[in-house]
Amino acid sequence: MTTSASGASAEAAEADLARAGEFLQLLRDGRPRTRAELAQLTGMARSTVASRVDTLLSLGYVAPFGGASSTGGRPPSLFALNPQARVVVGADLGATHALVALADLGGTIVSEVRESLPINRGPEEVLAWLSGAVTGLLADAGRPASDLTAIGIGLPGPVEFETGRPVSPPIMPGWDGFDVPGRLQRDFDVPVLVDNDVNIMALGERKTAWQDVDELMFVKVATGIGAGIIAGGRLQRGAQGTAGDLGHVRVPGGPDTPCACGNAGCLEAVASGPALARRLGVDVDGAAGGPEHKASKVIAQRLRDGDLETVRLVREAGRHLGSVLASCVSLINPSVIVVGGSVSQAGEHLLAGIREVVYTRSLPLATKHLRIVTSTAGARAGVLGAAALATDHALSPGAIEAAGRAPRRSA
Question: Does domain 5-81 have CATH number 1.10.150.650?
């Protein structure tokens, strides 16, 4: 049985489309290149490179870039990723806040909106607000809904990444098993990627300050304590998405303080923001803005006032963190440990305690070039990471292939 000419042509077009998505990864760094440079870089024939570039030009993901110099004859054409081709949305939904941003494919934030929105109001109310916020951001930017290509969301609880469903989240009543992607896809026909807040903060921090670092731990110290782990340049979620749950690791030699999980001596029970506030005699339960917000404000103010007891307790909390992180350093050997979350406002006092234990207990080779620093992205780490999660998907080979097959939708 022979294949018709039209059938063979269609198969060839499909193959070009699939390979064009892989080819685009070479241009994601934003650096303009000529066809000749791309051929040299990939080892492909110039005709093959031309075919890939033409496919990406037709989809709008690549655009000509002026400025190439000529050695005689016609100037060579430069091509680069077109960040304006599509847009993505990143959403950081916290315990008491929501921050949503519209970004281009280069990671530049176009516009954003913030709202005081407690996550415990439930998924229908929170996600209805999010849907309205996305619609408003698109309208404000003058972009049709057809330009939206992916949505990334961070949630303050455990998430099964493959399905985007929260799993027994302790501070999110009504969210357990809720189909977050399905709810948003009722309004937007795009992929919706959902992860826990610490993972997206790790992505945001790396994008902001550590793009050249492939081995990084982001440690969030707030109401709870968790870590986002990047190894080999990729976010590591573990088998069920619970990698990095440091809060319920027992502190070696630490106090047997009861923990909300039912155990005693957990890191969260002795080093989180509320735990520190309680030791300082401050009641944070039921506080406006949540216990995390009040605890961080009280701790920061007392440190500014030079309160010696607060300094002692913060450094002690740092040592408890350090005793757990020392094991992490031995296991995964990160190049950088970034400390974020509200309690990271304690700054050098907290870091001093962490460094004291990590550099003492870890092998010299593991700590030879290890940096332990506070977050650069700060409160924006989550929304930047959510946007990066969406962008990585939008520019993946599979997504480019799907975009080439589907007709552009109208607004």
Answer: no
